[in-house]
Specification:
The chain is elongated, with a radius of gyration of 32 Å. It is mostly loops and 63 residues long.
């Protein structure tokens, strides 16, 4: 049996960018984050009250 001839691998071509990528002229800079106006107003630090477990029967309407 004769061996098949050795093939030379093709030279590497230019690297392809991922689909949908866009080359930008400069890196993007994000604006500084603004604090939310009422972020602390929603917090509750009072006593926690234990609630009974819910069941599907409790959620059904009783007509």
């Amino acid at each position: 049996m004769t061996e098949p001839p050795q093939q030379v691998p093709p030279p590497p071509g230019p690297r392809r960018r991922p689909y949908g990528s866009v080359r930008l002229p400069a890196p993007l800079t994000a604006p500084p984050a603004q604090p939310r106006p009422a972020a602390d107003a929603r917090r509750w630090y009072g006593r926690r009250i234990a609630l009974p477990p819910l069941s599907l029967g409790a959620l059904r309407r009783h007509d």
